[in-house]
Amino acid sequence: MQSSRLEAIITRLKAMLSDDSEIEVRRFEKEGVEKCIVRYNKESESFELEDLTINETFQFDDIDLVAMEIYELIQ
Fold it and tell me: What homologous superfamily is domain 3-72 in, according to CATH?
């Protein structure tokens, strides 16, 4: 059985919550092509997802919702 991609995404997002920086950044790619950039702002306790495929930015305050959006982009 193949390991869960969604679980791997959530693990990376949770790591962002525990880092000491005010703003944490992670990049997600598929086959070497960057699909999105995710930033976590500790002050506002929210995620910002920059979708590089359509050049738009979205705000999330729920880790599950941002994980699902990332999953869809790299699927």
Answer: Protein of unknown function DUF1797 (3.30.720.20)
Sign of the C-alpha dihedral computed for residues 75, 11, 42 and 67 taken in this order = positive
Provide the residue type at 16 as one letter.
M
pTM (2 d.p.) = 0.90
More confident residue, 25 or 20: 25
Contacts of 73 (CB under 8 A, 6+ apart): 28, 30, 35, 36, 51, 53
At 55-71, the pLDDT tens digits run 999 999 999 999 999 99
